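Working notes for the structural subgroup meeting. M.R. asked for a predicted model of this chain before we commit to crystallization trials. I am recording the input and output together here so anyone reviewing the notebook later can reproduce the run.

Input as submitted:
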Amino acid sequence: MNKGIKRAKVKKNDTVVIIAGRDKGKRGRVLEVLPVKGKVKVEGTNIIKRHQKANPGLNRGGGIIDKEAFIAISNVQLIDPQSGKPTRVKYQVEGDGSKIRVAAASGQSLEK
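Returned structure, recorded in token form:
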């Protein structure tokens, strides 16, 4: 793996749609992003079962719990705020030199 800085065009709390895999078509909010590994965790998608041991110290019960697993960042696309459809992302340099994310389809800003 190269030693350069990896950047992801998807950020935490973005709304994305899954474009591949068993959850294809589902929409959700991004919970976590791992740019170096190219992975993303989306709310309510890629649910896995995990056996959890009880921990009285943390006041946590045991049993089988459902939780989200990471999926490849290439399998998600951001939602265009104008049309509500999936879109690619490009960057636009503002007059003051700052970069903002823009929907490639409509040109709408993706920044909150």
